[in-house]
From TrEMBL:
The lineage of its organism: Bacteria, Pseudomonadati, Bacteroidota, Flavobacteriia, Flavobacteriales. Keywords: Membrane, Transmembrane, Transmembrane helix. This is Uncharacterized protein. The chain crosses the membrane at residues 21-38.
């Protein structure tokens, strides 16, 4: 293989030869953004997983707390049902009000 002659080097190679630091910076910039976008996708999947895990554990903890309070005699099943229905009714009224205001 013959040694390259400056007349045979293409335009792209000439730019690299004149500005090697700019070429390295451009390659770094491209690789950075590729890595960034790959990590965004991984991060959103991970965020969804941890959110689901958090909600599951929170629900289990609340259920355990309710069972312990019921067993200790602090609350009764009717109290929990009443609190749920009261919350549901208040939320329904607020939602209807907000929807009516939006129209």
């Amino acid at each position: 293989m013959a040694d390259p002659n400056t007349n045979q080097i293409g335009r792209f190679q000439q730019l690299i030869a004149r500005n090697p630091i700019a070429f390295v910076a451009a390659v770094f910039f491209v690789m950075f953004w590729i890595t960034y976008f790959i990590n965004i996708n991984k991060n959103s999947d991970s965020e969804q997983y941890w959110k689901e895990l958090y909600e599951k554990e929170k629900w289990e903890k609340d259920a355990l707390k309710d069972q312990l309070l019921r067993k200790a005699g602090y609350i009764e099943q009717e109290t929990i049902k009443k609190a749920d229905s009261t919350l549901r009714e208040k939320t329904q009224e607020q939602a209807k009000t907000i929807l009516n205001q939006a129209k």
